[in-house]
Structure formats: structure tokens, C-alpha cells
């Protein structure tokens, strides 16, 4: 079943290749969407794909990001929009 999740990651998530690593993992698990840094020091991402793959990408970002230290993540689930064709880093 397809799903869409909007996530905000807090902690040491900027300046540690969080976005590039997120893009690599999302593509690896077949998820589309985007990731970007926010001015407040957090990272925002939208993941869309099979629900299990979306969950895998979020959990990996939370627990296994090299060099990052995620303190918390807020996730909001929504219906997929099918508006993405790939996963990209936004600036």
C-alpha cells in the first residue's frame, strides 16, 4: 500500500551530509520525494512510496545516519500524491 510521510528531524542533522545520505537511502529502498535543510537547524523531508519502504527510510534516518545525531523526529502521514518521479535534495 502506498503512503506519504512528512518528517522533521531534529538534532545534529545539518553539516553532516544528512540530506545526501537520505537521498541515497530513499533511492535504495525505492522511495520518491525530497529533503531540505530549514533555517531553524532541522531537516524536513517528504517520502512517498510503499508504506514499508517509507517507514524503513524514516527509521534509517532516525537511527542509522552516519555522523548525525537525531534527537527527535515528527512524522505526519498522508495520502500519496504521485507527484514525484525521484528523490531529490532541495536547497
Question: Can you tell me about this structure?
Answer:
This protein is α+β, with helices and mostly antiparallel strands. It has a single domain, classed as 2-Layer Sandwich (Alpha-Beta Plaits), CATH 3.30.70.100. It is 27% helix and 42% strand. The chain has two helices and five strands; from the N terminus they run E-H-E-E-H-E-E. It has helices spanning 18-29, 51-63, and strands spanning 2-12, 32-37, 43-50, 69-78, 87-89. The chain has a five-stranded mixed beta sheet, with helices on one face. Strand 2 (32-37) and strand 3 (43-50) form a beta hairpin. The longest helix is centred in the middle third of the chain and has 13 residues, at 51-63. The protein is globular. The model has no long low-confidence stretch (mean pLDDT 97).
Search tags:
2 helices, Alpha-Beta Plaits, globular, alpha+beta, 91 residues
**Count of all domains:** 1
The residue fraction in helices comes out at 25-40%
Strand content: 35-45%
What is the end-to-end distance? 30 Å
The main sheet orders its strands as: 4-1-3-2-5
Q: Which value, in Å, is the CA radius of gyration?
A: 12 Å
Give the quaternary arrangement of the chains: single chain
Mean pLDDT, to the nearest integer, reads 97
Q: Please report the number of helical segments.
A: 2
Content-based structural category: alpha+beta
Quick rundown:
The chain has 91 residues and is an alpha+beta fold. The chain contains two helices and five strands, in the order βαββαββ. α1 runs antiparallel to α2.
